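Morning F.,

Quick status update on the modeling queue. The single chain you submitted on Monday has been processed. Sequence for confirmation:
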Amino acid sequence: MSRYSMPLSACRLALSSSAAVFCTACATGGSFETQPVAPPIEVNTWELNRPKEIDKVIEDLMRPAPEQHVYGFSAAEPFIVLTSLDAQHVDLSRATIDTTPSFDTLAYYAYPLTGSDTAQATLISLDAHEWKSRPNAADYSEYVSGNTDGHYTLIEHDRSLLKVAAFNYTKVGVVDIAGDDRYDKTLVNLFYKGSETPEAMPVSGTANYDGYWERALETLYNDTNNGYNGNLLNASHANFTVDFSDRKMRGTLHGNNGERRQGYTITADISGAGFSGKATPESYSGIQETASVSGSFFGPNAAELGGHLEGQQRRAVAVFAARQTTANDIVQGEPTTYASVLQADGSEHAPDTNVIQGLHTIPFSGDIKTLKFKGEVFDLTQVAAQDGEVCCIEPKFQFMQTGLLSSTAGNANDITLLYFAHGHLTARDQVPVTGTASYKGRWMAFGRAPQGQAYVARSSENEARFTADFASRTLSGNLQGRSGADAIDVTATIVGNRFEGTASIKGGLTADPQAVGISPDARITGSSTVSGAFFGPHANELAGHFVNKDQSFGGVFGAKQQIIVPPAAHTP
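Structure tokens below.
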């Protein structure tokens, strides 16, 4: 196999979302006829006398620790040896948790072996089909030995290399992007990637997982093996047995093949959707050092797993991924995450029927700052609408996020609105059973009246307030309009860590804040079905959706628990 020629053009991830532009009808129609006087606007005068409130922030008990669920890991190491007259150690300072949101993209670090230690990340593609489609790409997959079942792909393109084993929710492999100079000795990146946090982890039963692993070992003096430390064309297998009842994982990384033999026995404890433990070298291993192990489960019902190990003396680093092959007596636990998207047609000339196109339950990305929907990945810290409406209702939420994303999919006349809510659910046994709690937040919505006027509720203009009575298991609240008057009343029943109920529109919603000369057919009326959940410790936050029964109107809300601030003592 040849050693590569021209540098690979980086496949950069572009995350963008265009704004929705809405047209509203003229309220009076331009007539000179006498118009009826608008009714007085009802204002909540009690709001003026409300005690001062602040958000109830959880200081020391944040969402699940990062090590409990990691979506990827990469390490730039001396994986491929061309001419090495000196020993090259595994340097774990070149290893990093991969936070690239796309399953098919890796932040590649081209660390040099000599010269400057500065390295810059470049986003590159891990999609084997995309690599194969490149001009002059060479497919060497058939030469990878070791019963790969077609999972491994080995592609060379202009001196760059991708070796990857891919399952549905995980992938593992190595990638090498050639430099401008053919003698440039950059380091290969080992990686594993995962996609989709399990909504619920099994609480009992056992399962077996089979997969593969890749490793980088320190190179020895005068070690001039040409290839992956003697293992470029070998598939190294990994097997795991998981007992969900006692929260234990045991496994073996088989490495009794190739010129650099190295294998491990793994024992780990499961916490949440993650695991951590240690790896002990097999007797035949050339490097005898214990390693630490960590990783996560991915996919529905913990269908797959991925992780990495790091040698305690920094002589080895490895990555692995595996899929579930058999399972016995599996009992699923309660969901720990929540993610749903309300899809609406925001097109200018859309009919008032079927405005709301469905409320979809989607896999949670694992991070409240990232949303994944139908193959699109949205970085919620970067996306904003063109008219200044930030996508997310409240940046101070700790355990969930709600907001609006809009997309034209290349056609400015076809606007799809995505009202989303996702996050880390309150554990059912942490939902209070006595007392009350007040919540304050924002809401957003979109709809059309029978005559076609578009109604847009923006979070910057609309406050949401709720009171949860945990003793009676009820939730009541108000979604207030721009004037401060209640626009929608909410009543719901709390069941576990979720709630369901009804939202009743008061008087009718219209694009005209003064409601002058608006006929009944130009108002959005009726009631909506409400569904949502509590998030964070002790129901610290809540979020949910509402959808009118005729599918003409819907939206999302989010709110955080409040603390009453005592008034300052009066000083005479």
